[in-house]
Amino acid sequence: MFASILVVIFILKSFYVIRVDSVVIGAFVMPHGGIALDPRYFNTTNATAKAQAWLVHDASKQVGKQIDDLKPDTIVLSTPHGIAAPEDFIFYLSPRGFGFSDTDNCACPPCCYNLSVAMDSKGSENLVRILKDENEKVSYLSAFGPPGNEDFPFPLRWGEVVPLYFTKSVLGQPSKVIILSQPSRRYTESVEMIPELHHLGESLFEILQSQLEKIVVIISADLAHTHLKSGPYGFSTAAKPFDKACGAWVSTQDSEKLVVEAASYVEKALSCGFTGLVMLDGMLKASPFTWESRLLANYHPSYYGMMLASFLPR
Questions:
Q1: Each residue of 294-314: pLDDT tens digit?
Q2: Which domains are present in the chain?
Q3: 87 near 192, Cβ under 8 Å?
Q4: What is d(CA 263, CA 271) in angstroms, rounded to the nearest whole number?
Q5: What CA–CA distance (Å, rounded) separates 27 from 24?
Q6: Which residues pair with 91 in a beta bridge?
Q7: What does UniProt give as the signal peptide span (predicted)?
Q8: How far is 31 from 34, CA to CA, in rounded Å?
Q9: Mind listing the pLDDT tens digit for each residue in 240-289?
Q10: How far, in Å, CA of 27 to CA of 163, rounded?
Q11: d(CA 102, CA 37)
């Protein structure tokens, strides 16, 4: 009898090890504003804003190290500023990506932040195929050649470059990247997209969870863009409560903080990252295990909010 129990325990432990090696091992929210790259070039005389910029920068480095320590095989990145289609969520189907970003108030050159990454074209193609079978609005784009076999890298910009720039696992290239671009209808229909985003997040998580590799998810997102009257989008009283609600969602993992409270402000707050956050919420809720979440930074050193957060399975 005792020997039988030991056999059962051994089988269960073996199954657990297999599952740990084949799950989403972490999810992170990272900003893509150039301030995060190097606050030395942030042109402000406001001491509080300058201090907040450094806190965002330091938190970005911290998240980058967390990702490196997890040693993911693949990083799945959602970007709101990629090459977008009006309706479909687009996966980049190329073997390589290359691009650059500027830091705020210092253009390239001299402030050049270049990034070259290996992209998982076969993984992207597989995701599109399965998600299409589940009636999700997804497609893929290739660039300058046969899909998955292009000679030239797929073009990347700040929405992808800034978050990935902090991860040495990408720069050193032991990890491949899958990039998902949010559709351009997010500009005008982000609240209407909430049920769809939740469903897509659930479907995406279930597919990723079945892969025999370690996967990290990054949501490239800035928050409200209406914190300052001098900013390009002006000032709105919706900016502060929107950012606060997003932070509360991270801390509590209460979906209503995001899809009800933050959603009630988003049309005036003007957040590029809202749809990615809602998709992530769907992924987390589809998980069979609980998550330990940490809000590492939530500031607006300039006219837009910048948040860093981590979600790790318990």
A1: 999 999 999 999 999 999 998
A2: 24-313 (3.40.830.10)
A3: no
A4: 10
A5: 8
A6: 140, 180
A7: 1-22
A8: 9
A9: 999 999 999 999 999 999 999 999 999 999 999 999 999 999 999 999 98
A10: 13
A11: 8
Pairs from 254-262 (Cβ < 8 Å, separation ≥ 24): 255/281, 255/285, 259/194, 259/198
Burial of 298 (0-12, 13-18, 19+ CB in 10 A): buried
pLDDT digits (tens, 9 = 90+) for 118-172: 999 999 999 999 999 999 999 999 888 888 788 889 999 999 999 999 998 666 6
- Token representation of residue 279: 């998709």
Lowest mean pLDDT: which of 20-24, 184-188, 292-296, 301-305?
A: 20-24
The strand pairing partners of 224, in sequence order, are: 271
